[in-house]
Amino acid sequence: MPSSRRSFFLVPAFIGLCSLAAGLIFSGDHVKAASTNDEDQLRQSIKAFTKVLDVVDANFADPVKPETAIYKGAIPGMLRTLDPHSNFFDPKDYKDLRTDQSGHYSGVGMMVGPQNDRTIVLAPFAGYPAYKAGLRAGDIILEIDDKKTDGLTVAQIAERLKGTKGTPVQIKVERDGSQPITFNIIRAEIERSTVPDCFFIRPGIAYLDITQFGENTAKEMEEKLAKLPESSVKGLILDLRANPGGLLTEGIDVAGHFLKRGELVVSHSGRTQPRKNFTVRHDGKGVDYPVVVLVNRYSASAAEIVTGALQDHDRAWVLGETTFGKGLVQTVFPMSDNTGLALTTMQYYTPSGRWIQRPYANQSFLDYYYHTNLDQKNTADVKMTDSGRTVYGGGGITPDEKYAPPKYNKFQIEVIRKYATLNFSSKWFAAHNTKLPSGWSPDESLINEFHDFLAKNKVDFTDAEFTENHQWIKDQLKREMYITAFSYEESQRVAIEQDPAVQKGIEALPKAKALLDSAKKQMVMRMNGQEQAAAASIAK
């Protein structure tokens, strides 16, 4: 999970990812034409649209770019009348979609973000060119290839940092007010795993984080679990929080790892698609230990498919907030000019038969994505899990145990908003060695330095607030300073170990075990009942 500062970008990032990576099936088929009965009406509609476009092109106050009017206006406008998830990708967006699903790109390997109308380095990724060159969290990006970054958005700067593998890029940064530093870097292929964290967080208790479902997610998961090794796992925390979804096939394979051969994972059907069931092809390797799945309101699509399958089969205890509620499948049709159309073609159903899609009519696009009603459900869509527990459709996956993360208080919001820990870390490392001993944690002397730093930089707080938030400050400083002293990846591990939701998940493992044991007993009872019924039938 992201650190406190980075979590402020979570909602807009989720909206962008959900529009890109939302329960997708890539189609190589040609686009089907309209039926004969609809051809006349379609022809008239196209004729009317062409006439409007001609009038606009001839009379609008400024020159009209056809690709903008069509790609950015007409087509997206049409799709928005259908549902919130059908989407059109212009050549750049379509390329980004394929890159996002593949999990790799060429660039320098670092995370950037906005601060005070400038773009800063949030974290270089360990082992990649930016990290090897010595770029640090907090560096302000001034120029890229001798071109100033003033007025550029974060997205525009990120795009300039990308490029063909093996090509050079020059980055000029400002570090803690000192003279600009220039870095000459050779771009490399950057691989960003969709399974970034998999480790034993306690003896025998493993933590596994899946950020989205790309082309190699199931394979990455299998490989990382094997390295633990999985045979030593006595309990697992599966983190699907803020996972926007992705490829349907990868979600099916991930769920199958924890289920038995023949068990249903998901089914889907549509107007032109007959109902199709997806079952587990082989007994999963992770079928014996208890699992707690962490979810929140931004867990969507393929993440909900996995969660719903494990919940319906009583295979995992689900902890957190009610999930997003996306029960629609998009098929991506390649179009001309390197564009693509993600069109909702089917609805999917969890093994119990529930359709979890949240209503989207009569509300704006933003209201749909920024949903606040986490208790929404369709009381007419009542289903049962394998052991007879009641579950509902219509409003996402309701967790077995609700848990909402603690909200930031006034002091914490002020510290995050001012990027105080980032700026302090950048300034501190400008005067100290960037290497810290293994297992390092901030001492009282450093925390007092941070207090003085806040006061000097006009962060609004009282000494009582500082004292009240002492442990939170210590945790935030440790996370932030680990980025420079060790790596972003090590910082994330610290954040996971500190995460109260993860701790709550560990506490819930006995509930997951009880659920698993109960499900096994139910299965034995059913099998015995079937054998007795068969014997009675033969006796007759």
Explain what this protein looks like in three dimensions.
41% of the residues lie in helices and 21% in strands. It is of the alpha+beta class and 540 residues long. Strands 1, 2, 14, 15, 18 and 19 form a 6-stranded mixed beta sheet that branches. Strands 11-12-13-16-17-22 form a 6-stranded mixed beta sheet, sandwiched between helices. A 4-stranded antiparallel beta sheet has the order 7-6-8-9. A hairpin with a 5-residue loop joins β20 and β21 (390-393). α9 runs parallel beside α10 (302-312), α13 packs across α16 and α16 runs antiparallel to α17 (488-498). The longest helix is centred in the C-terminal third of the chain and has 31 residues, at 509-539. The protein is globular. The protein starts with a helix and ends with a helix.
Percentage of β-strand residues: 15-25%
Number of strands: 22
* Largest sheet entry: 6 strands, mixed
Number of helices: 19
Globular, elongated, flat, extended or rod-shaped: what is the shape?
A: globular
User: How far apart are the termini?
Assistant: 61 Å
Q: Report the structural category.
A: alpha+beta
Q: What ranges have pLDDT less than 50 throughout 5 or more consecutive residues?
A: 1-12
Gyration radius, in Å? 26 Å
Mean pLDDT: 89
The helix content is: 40-55%
Concise overview:
41% of the residues lie in helices and 21% in strands. It has 540 residues and is of the alpha+beta class. A hairpin with a 2-residue loop joins β4 (110-115) and β5.
Properties at a glance:
22 strands; 41% helix; alpha+beta; disordered N terminus; 540 residues
